[in-house]
Amino acid sequence: MKKYISVIMAVIFALAFSLSVYAGGGGDTEASGDVGAAVEYGKTVDAVSAILMEADSGTVLYEQNADEALCPASVTKTMTMLLVLEAVDSGKISLDDMVSVSENAASMGGSQIFLSPGETMSVDDLLKSMIVASANDAAVALAEYVCGSEDAFVACMNERAKELGCKNTHFENPTGLDDTASGHVMSARDIAVISREVIKHELVYSYSTIWMDTIRGGAFGLTNTNRLIRFYKGATGLKTGSTSKAKFCISATAERGGLTLIAVIMAAPTRDIRNEVAKSLFDYGFANYSLYTDEPEEFEDIYVTGGKENLTKGVSSGFSVVVSKGDVGKIEKVTDVPEKLSAPIVKGEKIGTVTYILDGKSIGTSDILAAENVDKITFWSLLKKLGSWFLCSPPN
Q1: Which residue among 49, 57, 111, 134 is the active-site one?
Q2: The one catalytic residue among 49, 57, 74, 129
Q3: Which of 10, 35, 163, 363 is the one with CA 20 to 30 A from 200?
Q4: What pTM, to 2 d.p., does this model score?
Q5: Which of residues 289, 305, 334 is at a domain's end?
Q6: Pick from 25, 116, 17, 68: which is nearest to 264 by CA?
């Protein structure tokens, strides 16, 4: 009897994970930030909300109640990470900069590295402490250093969220501490969008993949709050969070075979369940999907009429989409570039299209853009061109 029950349960589980043939985004997915429509595979996860997103295209592969605004706990720090990483990459601050800790930063509760007022620590070690050990005092010290004050940093957090199209997010602090915060919320979808932006800064992986490390010359140990990086193949980050209000949350990232996935779990009942849900979503994504990528391509010798130059070049903007495993080799490209263009042509102007076809249907497009300016020829330019041609022509 047990054997038959096991077989039945296995069949039910397999059916629950069945899906349609294609789950990709449209051609403008990369450019517009539109994360597309989720594919429901019939399984409800043990959390209030969850989402699985493919990072390169932004395609959503699974979602459950993904737009509900919930307490995010320390997953808040995905935005704190983003603003600090952007400040580093832009040259506004350096990893070697020494930060003087304020009384405000040192007063943070929860997870911390026990910073003292007046203590100095490098941006590098503060970032490591925040990302690896979820240190609230390190997060506030970085926030104050980047923007001058915690309040100014929070304003930047909310502005950046708006820029990214986050519709169900509001920040009140850079830590996620919610004992006094009443309106500090994020949705699983918004967290995935922010996390997608974070991992565009590859520097984050040098911290988020650390299991154990030290600061203060080896005197203080750090252990990653994200157990997935040690126990799940391909896990690369990103941020955990838990409070009595938020329960157990995570924004997890993993990569296998060129496919990068983001799994966000909100309000799971326990840490272990949160991690198991993330792993099951990753397993589902890696088992069923592949990433098709078409790199930018140059198109030469496009004829131009009425221009100072007779020929110009174009370049496609590139394209990526998630498809069911086995479909990558079935995708066809159809290029549409006019035989001739009319001047003037402005660099970056759309001059053609690449359409991607799967099973006879378009799954997206990529624009072909002018690679250079071509000015319209004037009367005097034409005379000069003709004169040059006559002078260079050999006599009969």
Answers
A1: 134
A2: 74
A3: 363
A4: 0.81
A5: 289
A6: 68
